[in-house]
Description:
The protein has 257 residues and is an alpha/beta fold. The protein is built from eleven helices and nine strands. Helices cover 45% and strands 14% of the residues. One of its GO terms (molecular function) is catalytic activity.
Amino acid sequence: MADELVHYDVVGGTATITLDSPHNRNALSAQLRRELSDSLAKAATDDAVRVIVLTHTGPVFCAGMDLKEARGGSAGDQGVNEFPRILEQLWTSPKPVVARLAGPARAGGIGMVAACDIAVAVPEATFAFSEVRIGVVPAIISLTVLPRLNPRAAHELFLTGDTFDARRAVEIGLLNSAVPADELDAEVTRFVKALAAGGPKALAETKALLSRPRFATPSEGFEEMLGLSAKFFASEEGQEGILAFAQKRKPNWVPQD
Length: 257
């Protein structure tokens, strides 16, 4: 539809979700939030989708919440109340999510980048936790951002609201890589192919494993992890992977080129 702000497209096992609201720098308006959430839900339940790519049109990935819509509302009427669902969808998606940034991200936009499994940007992309500078708190996004960031950097950047570049974003754990604009799509494709090589159920379970609280010592977790490992070795997916390895072929879940 011509008036939609989020586009959804599936090609070769990859669902590309594109933010297309450049007139307000892809701010998280009510319409964009609704359409983004719907697209993420569709991708999560589509058996044809192996990997999700979250990208954008225009010069800015996402400027955060739509401040025009936030003016004058009470705490209960703020659009930010709907944002946790989107971050949760990205964080817990059974399909790996790759963020592709050809431009800056701010505030809630960074929260979405952090909620993705892989994030790639151009060197010119900039970032800022600008909340404190308008008198608000980066509370919701802290739940996805803080697990990624070096603690010292988090204190500095959350408290100052200073702008930082893609190079530093890689150094502190927000991004996986920063590549020139003419290499951005190739870098995203590299990650997509690597992710799609994994078994769908194994990827979903591994994502859950990465998000769970850590055991205090290895010995505390051996029994539970042994059960999980043995279950997957014996599973239909695991047996197919083992057979494919022995036969020197790709497993049946790998998308065809």
